[in-house]
Amino acid sequence: MYLKTLTLRGFKSFASATALRFEPGITCVVGPNGSGKSNVVDALAWVMGEHSAKSLRGGKMEDVIFAGTSSRPPLGRAEVTLTIDNSDGALPIDYTEVTISRLMFRSGQSEYAINGDTCRLLDIQELLSDSGIGREMHVIVGQGQLDQVLHAGPEERRAFIEEAAGVLKHRKRKEKALRKLDAMQANLTRVQDLATELR
Ligand code: ATP
């Protein structure tokens, strides 16, 4: 499995559709200061579901949409598509190539798709969760983040280890199951109240 292409349109400084093609192995992105290298990394995190504007180096999520320049008006939407080569079947889906897309409007509404089919963010998270990539995996190490890891307290360090061990997915499922259980308990209490009233 490897990242094959990343297409940006209206995302940060990439107003026009821009496709980046990667090969297996190491890729270096080089360019002058302010040319958009970090924006490429932001796009990767964003398409995998990042929803913290701060992590994307902005003040609000809308800041990911092209804000315009002196020669070009602002755009109303940002779109990023990531194509992953899945010929080794690392992702649990019957496709040798998988595309993940995210589209966002200025209203803040986001739409996600897997291979062109609209889906929930949760579907993307589940698809990527065993692959070692994904928004909540520490696969994107930003400037200054190594310091954060080295100075992490015991709780934070434990969270890093849990992610590396793949516990995160099960923790999320457990939290979801507990929420359902709570709702079920509330319903049960309500039914018992009604039964008491009817006696
Ligand atoms: P450095 O080497 O200095 O770290 P870089 O190549 O990583 O720079 P980026 O931080 O990716 O550069 O890009 C910064 C550029 O992106 C700035 O010129 C900034 O104006 C532009 N930019 C960021 N957000 C937007 C936006 N929403 N609309 C238009 N341009 C944007």
TrEMBL record:
Q: Which residues bind ATP?
A: P32, N33, G34, S35, G36, K37, S38, N39
Subcellular location per the Swiss-Prot or TrEMBL entry: Cytoplasm
Q: Per the database entry, which stretches of residues form a coiled coil? A: 167-199
Q: Which family does it belong to?
A: Belongs to the SMC family.
Q: What is known of its domains?
A: Contains large globular domains required for ATP hydrolysis at each terminus and a third globular domain forming a flexible hinge near the middle of the molecule. These domains are separated by coiled-coil structures.
- What does the UniProt record say this protein does? Required for chromosome condensation and partitioning.
Question: How does the annotation summarize its subunit structure?
Answer: Homodimer.
Q: What's the protein name?
A: Chromosome partition protein Smc
Organism this protein belongs to: Acrocarpospora phusangensis
Whole sequence portion shown: 1 to 199 of 1141
